[in-house]
Amino acid sequence: MRAPDRLRPLVAASWRRSAAVDPDAVPALALGDDELDAARRDGPLATLLPVVRHLLLDDTRSAGCVLAVGDASGRLVWVDGARTARRAAEDMGFVPGADWAEDRVGTSAPGTALRLDRPVQIRSDEHYANAVKPWSCTAVPVHDAHGSTVGVLDLTGDDRAVERHTLSLLAATVAAAEARLALAASRVPGPAVPTSAAPGAELTVLGTDTAVLRIRDRRVQLSARHSELLVVLAAHPDGLAAADLAQAVYGDAGAVVTLRAEVVRLRRVLAEHASGVTVTSRPYRVTGMATDVDTVLSALDRGARLQAVDRYAGPVLPGSAAPGVDAVRDLVRGRFRESVVADGSVEALLAWARTPDGAADGRVLRALLAVLPRRSPRRAGLVAAIEALEGP
Predict the structure, then answer these.
(1) Is the pLDDT at 23 greater than 80, yes or no?
(2) Which has the least CB within 10 A, 24, 125, 287, 351?
(3) Where is the OmpR/PhoB-type domain (predicted)?
(4) Which residues, in sequence order, are bridge partners of residue 153?
(5) Does 83 reside within a domain?
(6) Domain holding 122: CATH number?
(7) Does the reported pTM lie above 0.85?
């Protein structure tokens, strides 16, 4: 075993703290199945896991590595990644429920990151335990809105697990998760503050052919035509003249009589199920309603790009052929494209490129190719995708 004074200072200090640990011991299982289920379902790690899966899991599998999330004590709650790597990791006790705290297994990225409360990268024989020496790992602690450590995110594998960009990817993923934790904390119920400015209903139109109008705990499924009318009106808060609305919905500015009859039917539905939402005339305008499009575009405006992508369920009314809906659809796609390309970060571009819209956008894929590290396993697939989109 290498002498501590020949190691990096951070690692040498960890080895000295690990002097009482048996380097040949196997990590003990500290959490049972019920405790693991509870940790994944409730609390801060339940917020972290969907972000980790969305942003890192595909790349982890492609790179032949293992991704893990541990609690604040260093006990692994979730482990996934490439199948071969997972099986190999099981031999060293890197499994859900195992205790990887530094005082249990010695120097390792997750345990030492938690001990120091800072990101850590540990290469192969810098590990204290003998069984872990064939591996390298990067880990980043996770904090709640108050700054308390609630867990750790770890990537374990070969030398790719400790490349410089790996630490940036994990840190960005943790930052996205911490933002969601802070948002959840800010929504803790308190005294109600009535406001006339807040819309009383939200229209869900992303990724669904027919919209759902949500009014507190009630849901109203709308017809395809009523969905189109509300999407177009919501996109024009100053209102539209009858001919313009007819053109946007029917593709025919002369279909005003048909439009008026449909608006009457829509008003009846709203009066019965959502009296706070009204459609006025001259010009046609909708009030008392927000949409999930507003939510994702607001997140983009705040610079919360990963949050916006996470909430993007798909194109606006994907089955609609209405010209006005198509225009809103293109507007949302364009806003995402401009935002993630302007941001220029690997994390934002990767997140959008994983959606069907982003995956079909050559400009986004080219921007991602430009910022990916040269050794990234994603590069070959990106080149092939770009060539398929743009032709020979």
Answers:
(1) yes
(2) 24
(3) 217-286
(4) 69, 140
(5) yes
(6) 3.30.450.40
(7) no
Tokens matching residue 243: 């001919």
Please tell me the number of Cα atoms within 13 Å of 31 on its side-chain side. Answer: 22
109 vs 388, residue with greater confidence: 109
Total count of domains within the chain: 1
Nearest to 82 by CA among 151, 164, 158, 167: 158
Range of the domain at 111: 4-186
Residue 215 lies in a domain: no
Query: Residue 384: exposed, middle, or buried by beta-carbon count in 10 A (0-12, 13-18, 19+)?
Result: exposed
DSSP, collapsed to helix, strand or coil, labels residue 186 as helix
Supply 295's token pair.
């939510």
CB 54 within 8 A of CB 310: yes
| 79 occurs within a structural domain | yes
How many beta carbons lie within 10 A of that of residue 125, not counting itself?
15
User: By three-state DSSP, how is residue 242 classified?
Assistant: helix
DSSP 66: E
Query: Where does the pLDDT of residue 193 fall: very low under 50, low under 70, confident under 90, or very high at 90 and above?
Result: very low
pLDDT at 1: 53
User: Cis (ω within 30 of 0) for the bond into 283?
Assistant: yes
Which residue has tokens 């002498």? 3
Six token digits for residue 235: 């996109």
What would the 3-class secondary structure string for 150-197 be? EEEEEEEECHHHHCHHHHHHHHHHHHHHHHHHHHHHHCCCCCCCCCCC
Flag whether pLDDT at 298 surpasses 90. no
